[in-house]
């Protein structure tokens, strides 16, 4: 039925990523990478060895958009529960 | 806008032979094809639609993320949570 | 249900709950329910200068929907157990 990867429903992609490092894109210009240990149907996640990247866009008072206005804040967390409603996209490690 | 007397009513919209049917049929037909998925944020994901479920959760292959027409990321596989989806558009003939 | 169970096993442990309004609260997890509403005791707000109204608060109830993250005590999370339980729950969810 399916072309190459043999997945029948989207959650198969997540299930096959258990115990692997995944990339997660969240609402609020946040991104995570971490090792996936648990998820559920809401896309609630539990990740370990997490690095969070927050994109901060500087918006000056005059409304102009300067170049290089994007700052990046990073932090690490050991074991993290992520509430599913903030999840936009999950990408497994690219297996070549 | 008044029509002349005796003009027959306009015919029902012609059923295009390829793109006919219900939304469900469209979704069935587009699996395995190149698609554009637009999120409510305006970000586009272009890739091959592996599968989707009733929540519009989507699995894409060979995905490119486009923001304002610029490629900002590439993913081998991507799972998109359905609540973020605005539309799915076929990017090749069905 | 799986994530609910995980939180239940972590009662009486110290966790840090980060809310969607960026407020971070560390406290002892007293209870959790199926909506992942959370009760915390002996709380401490991370950035009290920015949230002065929280200084006198000693315990709180957090509605699950306002949670962004919960930082968990990694030493008390069995990741292998989590992955097995997640696979089992995924298998039990017969889809269409």
TrEMBL record, chain A:
Primary location class: nucleus
Protein name: LSM complex subunit LSM3
UniProt KW Ubl conjugation keyword: no
Family of the protein in this entry: Belongs to the snRNP Sm proteins family.
Species the sequence originates in: Steccherinum ochraceum
UniProt-annotated location(s): Nucleus
Cytoplasm is among the record's keywords: no
GO terms of biological process kind: mRNA splicing, via spliceosome
Bilayer-crossing regions: none
Start and end residues of each Sm domain: 9-96
GO CC terms: spliceosomal complex; U4/U6 x U5 tri-snRNP complex; U6 snRNP
UniProtKB/TrEMBL annotation, chain B:
Top-level taxon of the source organism: Eukaryota
Skewed-composition ranges (Pro residues): 1-15
Compartments (UniProt record): Cytoplasm; Nucleus
Comp. bias regions, Low complexity: 16-25
Keyword terms: Cytoplasm, mRNA processing, mRNA splicing, Nucleus, Ribonucleoprotein, RNA-binding, rRNA processing, Spliceosome, tRNA processing
GO BP terms: maturation of SSU-rRNA; mRNA splicing, via spliceosome; tRNA processing
Keyword Glycoprotein among UniProt keywords: no
Entry similarity comment: Belongs to the snRNP Sm proteins family. SmF/LSm6 subfamily.
Subunit structure of this chain's protein: Component of the heptameric LSM1-LSM7 complex, which consists of LSM1, LSM2, LSM3, LSM4, LSM5, LSM6 and LSM7. Component of the heptameric LSM2-LSM8 complex, which consists of LSM2, LSM3, LSM4, LSM5, LSM6, LSM7 and LSM8. The LSm subunits form a seven-membered ring structure with a doughnut shape.
Protein name as it appears in the record: U6 snRNA-associated Sm-like protein LSm6
TrEMBL record, chain C:
Alphabetical keyword list: mRNA processing, mRNA splicing, Nucleus, Ribonucleoprotein, RNA-binding, Spliceosome
One Gene Ontology term from the biological process aspect of the record: mRNA splicing, via spliceosome
Key word Ribonucleoprotein present: yes
Gene Ontology CC terms: catalytic step 2 spliceosome; Lsm1-7-Pat1 complex; P-body; precatalytic spliceosome; U4/U6 x U5 tri-snRNP complex; U6 snRNP
UniProt superkingdom: Eukaryota
Pfam families listed in its UniProt record: LSM
Secretion signal, residue range per the UniProt entry: none
Gene Ontology molecular function: RNA binding
InterPro entries tied to this protein: LSM_dom_sf, Sm, Sm_dom_euk/arc, U6_snRNA_Lsm2
Residue ranges annotated for the Sm domain, each copy included: 2-76
Localization terms from the record: Nucleus
Function: Component of LSm protein complexes, which are involved in RNA processing and may function in a chaperone-like manner.
UniProt family annotation: Belongs to the snRNP Sm proteins family.
Name of this chain's protein: LSM complex subunit LSm2
Organism: Steccherinum ochraceum
């Amino acid at each position: 039925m399916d072309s190459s990867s043999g997945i029948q429903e989207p959650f198969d992609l997540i299930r096959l990523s258990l115990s692997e490092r995944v990339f997660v894109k969240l609402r609020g210009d946040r991104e995570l990478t971490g090792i996936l240990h648990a998820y559920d149907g809401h896309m609630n996640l539990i990740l370990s060895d997490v690095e969070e990247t927050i994109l901060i866009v500087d918006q000056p008072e005059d409304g102009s958009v300067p170049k290089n206005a994007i700052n990046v804040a990073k932090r690490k967390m050991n074991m993290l529960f992520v509430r599913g409603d903030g999840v936009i996209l999950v990408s497994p490690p690219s297996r070549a | 806008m008044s029509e002349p007397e005796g003009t027959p009513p306009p015919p029902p919209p012609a059923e295009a032979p390829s793109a006919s049917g219900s939304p469900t049929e469209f979704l069935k037909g587009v699996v395995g094809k190149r698609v554009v998925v637009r999120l409510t944020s305006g970000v586009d994901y272009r890739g091959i639609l592996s599968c989707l479920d009733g929540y519009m959760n989507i699995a894409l292959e060979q995905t490119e993320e486009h923001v304002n027409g610029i490629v900002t990321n590439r993913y081998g596989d991507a799972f998109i949570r359905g609540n973020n989806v605005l539309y799915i558009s076929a990017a090749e003939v069905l | 249900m799986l994530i609910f169970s995980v939180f239940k096993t972590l009662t009486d442990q110290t966790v840090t709950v980060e809310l969607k309004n960026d407020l971070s609260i560390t406290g002892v997890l007293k209870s959790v329910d199926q909506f992942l509403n959370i009760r915390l005791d002996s709380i401490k707000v991370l950035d009290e200068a920015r949230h002065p109204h929280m200084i006198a608060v000693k315990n709180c109830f957090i509605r699950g929907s306002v949670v962004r993250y919960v930082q968990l005590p990694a030493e008390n999370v069995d990741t292998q157990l989590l992955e097995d339980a997640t696979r089992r729950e995924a298998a039990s969810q017969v889809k269409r």
